[in-house]
Specification:
This protein has two helices and five strands, in the order H-E-E-E-E-E-H. The chain is an alpha+beta fold. The chain has one domain. The strands form two sheets. Strands 3-4-5 form a three-stranded antiparallel beta sheet, with helices on one face. A two-stranded antiparallel sheet has the order 1-2.
């Protein structure tokens, strides 16, 4: 997503983001955070999820995972496997 679109929607406090683009007319994830939270320490982008690790002010790092679940039964099995992999950091 272009920085101009982010800034026009949310303002200049939100300077960090990560996105998983939509495929066709469905799906897609964008996570935007205020610059005070700091940059992401690590990111992970998969087919149906994205994860961001934060450690603001050098406190204990923590992860945020956002998901978009597929609609087809075949892809739901792949989605569940992906979440297992995110959990175990494979």
């Amino acid at each position: 997503m272009p920085i101009g679109a982010i800034l026009s929607m949310l303002g200049s406090d939100f300077t960090n983001w990560i996105d998983l683009p939509a495929i066709g007319a469905s799906g897609g994830i964008v996570v935007v955070w205020r610059h005070g939270l700091g940059p992401a320490n690590a990111t992970r982008i998969d087919n149906y999820s994205l994860s961001i690790q934060f450690s603001p002010n050098n406190i204990q790092p923590w992860w945020l995972t956002c998901v978009y679940g597929p609609q087809g039964d075949d892809n739901k099995l792949l989605f569940m496997q992906e979440l297992r992999c995110v959990r175990s950091a494979c």
